[in-house]
Specification:
Elements: H1 13-16, H2 22-27, H3 33-36, H4 41-71, E1 72-74, E2 94-97, H5 104-132, H6 134-150, H7 152-158, H8 160-174, H9 177-188, H10 194-202, H11 204-220, H12 230-249, H13 262-269, H14 285-289, H15 292-321, H16 327-357, H17 363-385, H18 392-405, H19 416-420, H20 425-451, H21 457-481
Antiparallel strand pairs: 1-2
Helix pairs in contact: 4-6, 4-9, 4-10, 4-11, 4-12, 4-15, 5-6, 5-8, 5-9, 5-20, 6-8, 6-9, 6-12, 7-8, 9-20, 10-16, 11-16, 15-16, 15-20, 15-21, 16-18, 17-18, 17-21, 20-21
Length: about 500
């Protein structure tokens, strides 16, 4: 039997109805049907992937909440009109003292420094994963920045330049994580399960954001390990520990896994759109340049990333300086919208998985509905933010609605690279994520330029409107031109690709 491309037609009955073959499953190394039917090896990949993405986001954005404590929060707009008055029990001049004297533009540079390294490493990481394998690259992308995170307080204390350099290095190493995970999903997750499992893995972005804001904000308001430094120490330690089960239990592809049951292996291989040869697929640059679906993903990724990174990096500052939440409260309040996003992401993914598995909707419709809900919904919520004035309750409601809507994106355009070119999923995600990551620099720089010495409602309205308009435009492009069809340039010369062999490759490197 050949397992190449989309051409294999095989029933999953023997997999889903394994209760009828318990003794057979036991003999094939499945660990017993009571266990293998409930927990498969791909579930381990999903769980460890989720935890890895969670750690990645904690180490990425803990600075966004810690910087409020590092710099302090001053009422610099007390003499400006069109601002929100500070609570009567707060000082009219200083809300909280900080250790570092960084103005808004300097803070914008520091917050965006991570992405100076993250942008180029996405592309090169996406290509490297197709040579070295997602297990090694994803593990390095999580553990490496965790080690550097432990050094953050020391570097910040020495100089802002050294701190910026450290953040650039973190981004450089961490840029390989998303291309690696997308490539791993192409090998491990059948198409009809991708919406469900993708939402579970990538909701780690929201869970990491919730933990970084809520726990990080609380840590910064205490004296534990010096206050704000603890927001770097704890995630750094956890990230290093995570690497142990990842390197012990994960494998690049199911063919290489020493403990996978034959039933699960057969199920995965007969339902995935993935070339199983040993030669890496050449990047079809000319075809990419002429591919409307590929450029559509580029535009959509930019739009989603701009709105997401604007709120990701600036929400704690907005809540602290405009809504005048204290350090502990601003962290908790900033976490609330991402908690809503987590719930929406998981619930939407489970529902999407049910609909596609039971053939209720096509994958193409699902991708567009999910993307439209995410970007149009968040854009409307951002426009509503311009009307809330100083009502902190309404501000949190609309932020929660906007970021909550974005949770649906994990079943939408975010995984479309795997749809249109599963053999190049790592490379394509590296390219699109590189463009999207540019917004990690643009968003804080643009916001910093708008609100520098101008913390007013009018200035923040401009920030929200810019993000909303970009969301609307980019989402419309995907609605018109987006597709889930595998593109012709996904397939290399099939004459050079050997048939699948039932023998498992002993190595850990990935060669296709």
């Amino acid at each position: 039997m050949s397992y190449e491309g989309n051409k294999v037609e095989a029933s999953s009955t023997s997999y889903t109805n394994c209760q009828q073959d318990q003794s057979s499953d036991m003999s094939e190394g499945g660990g017993g049907c009571w266990w293998s039917c409930w927990w498969q090896e791909r579930h381990t990949v999903v769980l460890l992937g989720f935890l890895g993405i969670t750690i990645v986001y904690i180490t990425r954005i803990n600075l966004s909440i810690a910087i409020v404590a590092m710099v302090g929060s001053t009422n610099t707009t007390s003499n400006l009109s069109n601002t929100c008055p500070a609570p009567s029990d707060n000082s009219s001049d200083v809300v909280m003292e900080g250790e570092f004297d960084w103005n808004e533009q300097t803070q914008g540079l520091i917050l965006g420094a991570f992405f100076y390294g993250y942008i180029p490493s996405n592309f090169f990481g996406g290509r490297m994963v197709e040579y070295l394998g997602p297990r090694l690259m994803f593990g390095t992308g999580v553990v490496g920045p965790s080690v550097l995170t432990l050094l953050s307080p020391l570097c910040a204390s020495v100089s802002s330049s050294l701190f910026v350099a450290l953040r650039v290095m973190e981004g450089l190493i961490q840029g390989v994580t998303f291309p690696s995970m997308h490539y791993m999903m192409s090998a491990w997750i059948p198409p009809k399960e991708k919406a469900k499992f993708s939402s579970m893995i990538f909701c780690g972005m929201q869970v990491g954001t919730v933990l970084a804001n809520a726990v990080g904000g609380w840590l910064c308001s205490t004296n534990f390990l010096g206050g704000w430094p603890s927001a770097f120490y704890l995630p750094g330690i956890i990230g290093v520990i995570w690497g142990i089960p990842w390197f012990l239990l994960a494998r690049d592809r199911p063919e290489y896994h020493p403990r996978i049951s034959q039933k699960e292996l057969t199920y995965i291989l007969t339902h995935r759109s993935f070339v199983t040869g040993r030669k890496t697929v050449t990047i079809p640059w000319r075809s990419l340049g002429n591919s409307v679906p590929f450029w559509t993903l580029m535009v959509t990724c930019f739009g989603y990333s701009f709105g997401f990174n604007t709120l990701l990096t600036e929400l704690p500052t907005y809540l602290s300086n405009m809504m005048h939440f204290d350090m502990g409260s601003s962290g908790l309040m900033a976490a609330l919208p991402y908690l809503v996003q987590t719930v929406v992401s998981v619930a939407w993914g489970i529902g999407a998985g049910f609909l596609t598995t039971h053939n209720k909707v096509t994958i193409n419709i699902l991708r567009k509905v999910s993307t439209g809900f995410a970007l149009y919904g968040s854009g409307l919520a951002l426009l509503a933010m311009t009307l809330v004035g100083c009502d902190s309750t309404l501000a949190l409601v609309f932020m929660s609605l906007g970021l909550g809507a974005q949770g649906a994106i994990n079943s939408g355009s975010v995984i479309s690279e795997q749809d249109i070119a599963p053999n190049l999923a790592g490379t394509l995600k590296g390219i699109t994520n590189s463009l999207g990551s540019v917004t990690g620099i643009l968003a804080p720089l643009i916001t910093g330029a708008i609100i520098n010495n101008n913390q007013t409602l009018t200035a923040w309205r401009s920030v929200f409107i810019i993000s909303a308009v970009i969301n609307f435009i980019c989402c419309t492009v995907f609605m018109i031109f987006g597709t889930n069809k595998v593109q012709p340039w996904n397939e290399p010369d099939k004459t050079k690709i050997p048939k699948y062999s039932s023998e498992k490759n002993e190595g850990n490197g990935l060669r296709i």
